[in-house]
Amino acid sequence: MNTLNTQVAIIGAGPSGLLLGQLLAKQGIDNIIVERVSGEYVLGRIRAGILEQGFVDLVREAGVNERMDKEGHVHEGFDISYYGQVFNINIKELTEGKTVMCYGQTEITRDLMEAREAAALTTYYESSDTAIHDAKSDAPYVTFEHGGESYRLNCDVVVGCDGFHGVSRQTIPAEQRTEHERVYPFGWLGLLSDTPPVSDELIYCKTKRGFALASMRSETRSRYYLQVPLDHKVEEWTDERFWEELKKRLPEEMAARLVTGPSIEKSIAPLRSFVCEPMQWGNLFLVGDAAHIVPPTGAKGLNLAASDVATLYKLLCKAYGEGDMSVLQRYSEIALRRVWHGERFSWWMSNMLHDFDEQEVGGMQKATFDQFMTSELDFFLNHQAGKQVIATQYVGMPYENID
Ligand code: FAS
Ligand code: PHB
């Protein structure tokens, strides 16, 4: 058994784990990351694209912003189209100057990986049998297998950045945690293509045929999504079928100028709202998808992971700075306040913009639910105050100050 020692053991080298590791290292707080798959595999996951200002500020604080500032695109608004009517949500005007950054999660993860390697920080990729021990004690530790050898990683705290299917949430005894969940009766079929985006802003489309989203990664790379039934397989969707369906869901003038091309990635993601409470157990802390999941309709998943990182990072700096680890007990309460705001917004946007092919939705007939949701959307899009509510949530609620 190889024995290792660090201050903070991080499980998972996705955006949460890498961002936290980078921030802590800049403050001289030693950390080691244990990751299940290879770095290439992590980078192969095509996911989020919209970064809130809080996330952008964190990346700058981590000193990993050079490419983001060069290649990212600041967005001052987005469109919502419903039944062919297009409404612009000018987030910059409605939030007195706030914006969002369009820069792919893959790129942020790549930048963080390269920065970690350049700083010679330790990451054990392709590890297996990761397990967390004595989380309730002052001397927790993590065991794992790597390169055919067994390891024991002694630490002060363990941070579970290991996503929805990771080991850390499961380490909290079931009777000690409350899980809230809503699984949606549809998925998102995503397509990435090296074609120019159909618009320079995102377009969220509500149609009788289902939801669609037009997004982008750069001026030459587009990201599109279609709501599809849960029983659909990605193999059933040829590129041609995807483009034809997208044209039927985009507003007419945008469908007319859509540039199609071969997909470079195509996948179907299920949608769920999920929160685990509490987000900590002794000296084990859950961050990001390990603790919560949102439907991507509100562009909150990655951004909630970032606000968890911000909260835990500040508390860890305070704890080590003052030599008092008890401040860490505030983490879950602070993190969950912002998580629930993101969960509500993502659930609300999903209810309004998707077509629920269930006979009963929210305890009422589908037709009645549709009427309520269409009327809700109509009210919010036709009133300045309504647009302001959407814009305020889209740019992200402020991060809490840790005094
Ligand atoms: P991640 O899941 O990214 O990373 C967890 C890491 O832990 C992985 O690398 C995994 O290999 C590792 N791990 C797991 N178990 C382990 C173990 N036992 N031992 C060691 N390592 C382990 N969010 C948006 O904002 N917009 C979107 O459009 C969007 N689209 C998405 C599409 C899909 C298909 C999915 C699944 C998510 C999407 N999300 C989106 C949400 C997504 O971006 C997450 O919020 C983000 O990846 C969260 O980052 P992490 O918390 O780091 O978790
Ligand atoms: C994306 O670009 O992948 C994206 C953007 C906004 C969303 C979801 C996904 O709400």
Automatic annotation (TrEMBL):
<keyword id="KW-0285">Flavoprotein</keyword>
<feature type="domain" description="FAD-binding">
    <location>
        <begin position="6"/>
        <end position="345"/>
    </location>
</feature>
<dbReference type="GO" id="GO:0071949">
    <property type="term" value="F:FAD binding"/>
</dbReference>
<dbReference type="InterPro" id="IPR050641">
    <property type="entry name" value="RIFMO-like"/>
</dbReference>
<dbReference type="InterPro" id="IPR036188">
    <property type="entry name" value="FAD/NAD-bd_sf"/>
</dbReference>
<dbReference type="GO" id="GO:0018659">
    <property type="term" value="F:4-hydroxybenzoate 3-monooxygenase activity"/>
</dbReference>
<protein>
    <recommendedName>
        <fullName>4-hydroxybenzoate 3-monooxygenase</fullName>
        <ecNumber>1.14.13.2</ecNumber>
    </recommendedName>
</protein>
<dbReference type="GO" id="GO:0043639">
    <property type="term" value="P:benzoate catabolic process"/>
</dbReference>
<keyword id="KW-0560">Oxidoreductase</keyword>
<keyword id="KW-0503">Monooxygenase</keyword>
<dbReference type="InterPro" id="IPR012733">
    <property type="entry name" value="HB_mOase"/>
</dbReference>
<dbReference type="InterPro" id="IPR002938">
    <property type="entry name" value="FAD-bd"/>
</dbReference>
<dbReference type="Pfam" id="PF01494">
    <property type="entry name" value="FAD_binding_3"/>
</dbReference>
<keyword id="KW-0274">FAD</keyword>
